[in-house]
Every structure is written in C-alpha cells, then in structure tokens.
Amino acid sequence: MTAVPETSYPRTARLAAALALVSLFTFAAAAPGQESTTLPPWTPGTLDIHHIATGQGNSTFFVLPDGTTMLVDAGAPTLPGQAPIADPRPDGSRSTGEWIARYVRRMAPAGREPEIDYALLTHFDRDHMGAVSDRSPWSAGEAYRLAGITDVAERVPIRAVLDRGWPDYAYPAVIDNPSVANYRRFLEVRERSDGLRVERFVAGRSDQIRLLRDPAAYPAFEVRNLFVNGDVWTGDGDAVTRIVPPLETVPREDWPTENHSSLAFLLRYGGFSYYTGGDLQGVPPDGYPDWADQETPIARAIGEPVDVVVIGHHGSIEPANAFFLATLRPRVSIVPAWSKTHPAPVVLKRLLNERIYPEARDIFILEFRDETKAAIGGRAERVASDHGHVVVRVAPGGGSYQVFVLDNRTESGAVLGTHGPYGSGRQEREE
Ligand SMILES: [Zn+2]
C-alpha cells in the first residue's frame, strides 16, 4: 500500500517533535502529587483527537496539525421528555449537543473564534447524529430542530459536512425518518444562508479531508477514506471494490443496515496512524452473508499495523474480529462505549487476547458501567481507563503520541490519567 514515508517531514519538524516530547515529559513528571492538572493547550504541529465521553453516543473532535478542525459524529439519542438510556455526562442539565459544543469551544485552537471546518456523520443513527421529536427546541430561524449535529451547529459554526447520503439520501433505500428529514432541512438552510458545503464521502479518496490552513508545512498528513455504503478501498491508488452485491439480487431483509453502511477512514501523520469506522462490524451473526463483515476487507486494504484503533459499534457483540485485530495490532484501542451492553464480554476478550497478537496494548473505554464490569468479571480490570474523555495527542511530525484521560463528570478538564509516550509505528519507548 502507499504509506506516507516516515522520513518525509523536514528536520525542523523532527526537532519540534523532540522538543514537544521533552515538554510532554515535563508535564507528565509534574502530574503526580498535584491536585489536578489540565491538558496543556494545543499548539501548531500537534494533532489532537478528543473522544468526547457524553454517555450518550459518539462524538470525536480533531485539531489537525495546522489548526484545521473536524468533528466526527454528534450523537444524542435521547428525545426530549424521555428518560436517558444511559447517564448523561457531565449531567442532564444541558443537551448533549450543548455539552459537545462547549467541549469543542474549550479545546479549539486559541486565537480565533472556534469553528468546525469539517463535520462528518459516520451514519444516520441517533447515537451518531442526534434525534428529534416535535418537542425538540427550534433553531434560531425556526427552520429545523436542534439535536446532536444541528444542536452543535447552532453553537459552533460548521463550514463543511461530509456524510454517506448526500444529495439523495437513498442508499440502500430512501432514508425516511424525522431526524434525517430535519438534518436535511438544516443542510438546505445553511447551504443557502451560510455557504455550508456538503459532500458525499467517497471511499478510496484521500483529498476530501485536507489541511486547510497550512498544508505545505505538514506534507506527511493524510486522511484516506476507507469505506462507505458497501464500497471499500483496495489499498491501490484511489481504487475501490464493492462488497455488497447488486441490491436487486439480495433479499430485502438482508440489505445493508445503517451500521453496515458507516463511513471509515485512516488518518496518517508521519509514522502515526489512526482508524475509525462508525458502527462497522466484523463478526456477522450466524446466517448472515459474508459482506456483513466489513472489517476483513478494510483490514486487507490497510495491510499493516495501526497505532490507534477506534473499536466499531461501541464494542457491542459484532466488531473487532480476529483478522482485523491481527492485521492492525493496535497499541491503543478506544472503545466508544456508553450503554450497559458496551463492550460485549466477547469483544473485550478478543481485544485482550495475546494469541491474536502478542504485543503490548492499552484499552481505553469511554464509559464502562459498573453493571457491565460485574457481568464481565476480572477481565474488566485489565483496561487502561473506564471513564472519561480520551485524548490522543500526537507530537509534531507524528513520531510519538500520548493518551490523556480527562474527567467527564465535570467540565474541569482535570487529567485523570496520562499514558505513553508511545512511539508511532510501534517503536516502543522505554522512558
Ligand atoms: Zn452506534
């Protein structure tokens, strides 16, 4: 495959990486014994990936090396008046979209008004995009209602949206529910009023998500689109193959679900790599067709280890098959769990299984509920963190990274744990 050469970034970037590592050590050394420490602000050249633990679904905020910002998903599954299906974090006093927006505003690059350059929806389930009812609050112009992604957009400007459905929202069949209809009204209104750009995410491409502010300074940065709507990158140029047969040959009850149609991408920065893929799966239930496993063709296309892997479908029953894990060999796995069925005992068992791959690994779980731990037993103690925002901070140049776990019970931003530094490309650091 066409990996970005690890040596392609200039000497100055490597020097900056070394200096950044020194400052990270200084910070890590200062942490023990202090009451609480907060994450030092983002600085140019650093890549920050914030897995925001709202207890209500997925949302991940990226600050790319040149300050370009990206939000992947803004889940908010609970309808107004409904009891939440899981505990909202920090608490239930604000909407999930508002908590996400407040997090983004705190962590966005300083010195300019916070904004989201790219917003991606991996798929159209409520724990990834939000859900509306006729009791949801209206936007300022009363053209659409606020929940999840539209709620975030009301509070932080969004410049461009990529999703799996634009413009017709008709794969595999017309997507017809109140939340998607509301989201489409939001897109139409904001395209007209604010010049919002909307594109369909296309598998195979590496030019849909780009650095927008200073790309020339970071040539070793790339986002490769891996999968969407049954199309998977082949690992060769921009080429894709289709794993789902023509729909007219497939019984309607076997058509791909929202989860099966999620978008996935691989982010590279120097030697560092990161995978995320919505609710894609790798262990089809008995009786399902082969293509209900999207992870195997994705792992074939990637074909080499990946430093940080976000486990699909919240770690619930079907993700993280053995071939996928044996190929990607994640040093860090992040499980975006929020419900009591996340992660499934069998998935945690696979993530820990050293017969699948023998190397060291750390597993971070955004919300590992007590009843879930009790059902799993002793294995539940072997995770690196069981609650909190999980922040992957990649040093300038991409040669190393750390993982910070931040308090999600308050907005203090207190650091609950610091892990690493890890050498990118599994170059272990024994500091
Ligand atoms: Zn989900």
Description of the molecule:
This protein is α/β, with parallel strands linked by helices and 431 residues long. It has a single domain (11-30, 41-426), classed as 4-Layer Sandwich (Metallo-beta-lactamase, Chain A), CATH 3.60.15.10. The chain is built from 9 helices and 17 strands. The protein has helices at residues 11-30, 96-107, 126-129, 149-155, 178-194, 295-302, 322-328, 345-352, 370-376; strands spanning 47-51, 60-63, 69-72, 118-120, 160-163, 197-200, 221-228, 231-233, 240-242, 264-269, 272-276, 308-310, 332-335, 362-365, 389-394, 400-406, 415-423. The strands form 2 sheets. A 9-stranded mixed sheet has the order 6-5-4-3-2-1-15-16-17, with helices on one face. Strands 9-8-7-10-11-12-13-14 form an 8-stranded mixed sheet, covered by helices on one side. Helix 6 (295-302) links the parallel strand 11 and strand 12 (308-310). Helix 2 (96-107) crosses helix 4 (149-155) and helix 6 runs parallel beside helix 7. Mean pLDDT is 92; it is low at 1-34. Bound molecules: zinc ion (ZN). The site of zinc ion has 5 residues, from helix 3.
Features of the shown structure:
single chain, 431 residues, alpha/beta, Metallo-beta-lactamase, Chain A, 17 strands, binds zinc ion
